[in-house]
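Run log, item B.
One chain of 480 residues. Sequence copied directly from the ordering sheet:
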Amino acid sequence: MSAHATAALSSTSFSSTPTEVPSATAWNEALLRRYDKSGPRYTSYPTALAFHEQFGTADFTQALERSNASRRPLSLYVHVPFCRKICFYCACNKIATKNTALAEPYLSRLDREMVLTARHLDTSRPVQQLHWGGGTPTFLSLAQMGDLIDRLDARFGLSGSADRDYAIEIDPREADVFTLRHLQSLGFNRLSLGVQDLNPQVQKAINRVQPRVLTETLMEEAHRLGFRSLNLDLIYGLPFQTEKSFAETLGQIIELNPARLSVFNYAHMPTRFAPQRRINEADLPNADEKLAILHTTIEMLTNAGYVHIGMDHFARPDDSLAIAQRNGTLQRNFQGYSSHAQCDLVGLGVSAISRIDDVYAQNPTQLDQYETSLDQGRLATVKGLRLNKDDLIRRDVIERLMCDMCIDLAAIGKRWNIDASDYFSTALEQLRNAEQDGLVTFHQQMISATPIGRLLIRHLAMAFDARLADQSTQRYSKIV
């Protein structure tokens, strides 16, 4: 949901080399199983589990006002919670309805939130990033999309700069070429298309029947219209998937040639996410099959020329994500990886999270609570966190590790005026076991993840998490 910090890493660091695929000797299933515990994805540090209700609207507005002195560009995230159909794997905050008129009151509340937020911001700061997520943003009618963009522009002033990053998540079942032309006219230049799997049996089991032609037609039109980057979302670990069936999906995806791919690991948590109760657990691939799917995914995509950015993200070498990683300027945020410079993120809508310098602030996940706050003329912040210096240092280290697959302790020490080796002595000691198992290498002040260590980067990052001991890791998904 935003873009974060930059780093001054040596051009000879691990991140500057081409991505390596775990070879037959490096791919160690027993090792991956042993380290396949639950842990954060570190789209933020501290994670959302550290947010507390003593942080309220006044704290958030003060953070907005403090941020003006930085002159950092802005990033806007807009949560559109509506979907026409519920996909059974979904863990997002959403509302199922086919009636687009139900979005009108929500759009009015969004505008009220924009007005209340903009009062505390210097809106001459450029809006470098815009992201619409959900739910399904393309649930909105074309007129409603245009109205929402007009409101955003009126309150914050949107950018026409060629290097802006204005993205929207799209369900190919609910969009056509007219949708894409309209989105382009509104200023969007990047699209993310949900695909998940092209196998009909899998699609039926997750309540998302989506023939390839829908995705292919949209991609062809998007390329013709000149959208800068297309991302496709896939999920492995869904019912009836096998290594062979997913390889067939990947073969078709590679033919479609998207600039980016996100290949997410399905986390089956039916006690937390009601739609997942519609999935028969017996139909899910077992742990061995999931590892085989992951291995094949990395091999096929890398052989097709994609760079394994980290975790579940892949990009073509000429895509801005891969270029940012080579330059040491990649960021980690609530949507995953981002190529843009550090921004202050304003999250708008139900469940949205803002990141303003040293503060996180979250809106309620319940729509009625969100509406009530705004109807009373106040921002809807229900919890958040102001980071202390230790949090900020650890956030920097974890983000660099997640983005660069290495940590330059000398650069960290210089940036924060600390002896990084001494400051993180406990974490480095914890990583010695990972070193013995071949997940990381230590060379002077550089700690680098090995090819197989990249797959377990979340585990490596956990060594630097000072708050993890106070949290139940069972609230998190499995690492692999």
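Observations after the first pass:
- The longest strand covers residues 127-134.
- The mean pLDDT is 90.
Flagged for discussion on Thursday.
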